[in-house]
């Protein structure tokens, strides 16, 4: 029932004369066989909703919609409580300081594209176990948000709906980004249209929240806190919507998703955002 180290694939690739790893937060096996929570208790929802209300502007929600999903600037995000079954952080989580969320980073899990909607909570628990276990020893699941192939958006790292929690899985933590991860392997196969639409909406919501310019070609500059591509102290200029490979020596988010990051998402995200007066 539990994913084991032997069930995880951690392949390194040789490219351009140097070793590049898969996204260090990725694995190929979750625990999709585990039962999924079918219902969300009222108390669970209230905890998630009150946390959200602390830091993000809520949109108007019809009463009938409020039970199951938490609104996040126009995006329905399934709160962590819907998959975590009480699994919490194993260590302290840091918040980005105001103004320090400067760009948005797209990942993929490099796991199978073949799963049912009911499998997703179990997959997320599998990622959590891998990230907090002996292979990675991070204090929580690495990414702030996940997007599944059916277009459902999930809160990942604890507290991400309430504010910009620092993430992991960037070859270190060069910081200054929120991490949004497709559940699937997008080296060859592109994310589904549903997943692309939801990722676009999620990126737009985060860009609104953190006042990030997203028009094609928009860049930001920061001093790296350290990754395996950008050593600590390096001044890095990046597009404000970027792929994990822009920050680390990795193939993540896969060639097919990275093409979207470069060629599609900046204009699509910007089109969803309010036009400045
Ligand atoms: Zn990645």
Automatic annotation (TrEMBL):
SUPFAM superfamilies assigned: N-acetylmuramoyl-L-alanine amidase-like (SSF55846)
Lineage top rank: taxon: Bacteria
SMART domains in alphabetical order: PGRP
CDD domains xref list: PGRP (cd06583)
GO terms for MF: N-acetylmuramoyl-L-alanine amidase activity; zinc ion binding
Keyword annotations of the record: Membrane, Transmembrane, Transmembrane helix
Family membership noted in the UniProt record: Belongs to the N-acetylmuramoyl-L-alanine amidase 2 family.
Name of the protein in its database record: N-acetylmuramoyl-L-alanine amidase
């Amino acid at each position: 029932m539990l994913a084991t180290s032997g069930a995880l694939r951690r392949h390194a690739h040789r490219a351009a004369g140097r070793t590049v790893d898969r996204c260090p937060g990725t694995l190929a096996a979750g625990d999709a066989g585990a039962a999924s929570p079918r219902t969300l208790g009222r108390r669970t929802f209230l905890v998630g909703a009150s946390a959200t209300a602390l830091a993000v502007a809520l949109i108007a929600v019809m009463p009938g919609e409020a039970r199951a999903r938490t609104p996040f600037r126009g995006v329905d995000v399934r709160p962590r409580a819907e998959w975590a079954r009480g699994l919490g952080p194993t260590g302290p989580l840091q918040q980005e300081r105001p103004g320090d969320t400067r760009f948005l980073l797209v990942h993929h899990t490099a796991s199978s594209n073949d799963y049912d909607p009911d499998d997703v909570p179990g997959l997320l628990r599998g990622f959590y176990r891998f990230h907090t276990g002996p292979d990675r020893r991070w204090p929580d699941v690495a990414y702030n948000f996940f997007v599944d192939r059916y277009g459902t958006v999930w809160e990942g790292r604890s507290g991400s709906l309430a504010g910009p929690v620092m993430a992991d899985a960037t070859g270190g933590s060069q910081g200054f980004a929120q991490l949004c991860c497709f559940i699937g392997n997008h080296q060859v196969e592109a994310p589904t249209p549903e997943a692309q639409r939801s990722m676009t909406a999620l990126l737009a919501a985060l860009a609104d929240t953190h006042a990030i310019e997203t028009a094609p070609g928009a860049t930001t500059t920061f001093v790296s806190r350290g990754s395996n591509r950008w050593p600590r102290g390096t001044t890095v200029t990046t597009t404000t919507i970027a792929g994990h490979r822009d920050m680390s020596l990795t193939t993540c988010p896969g060639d097919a998703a990275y093409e979207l990051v470069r060629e599609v998402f900046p204009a699509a995200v910007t089109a969803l955002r309010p036009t400045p007066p």
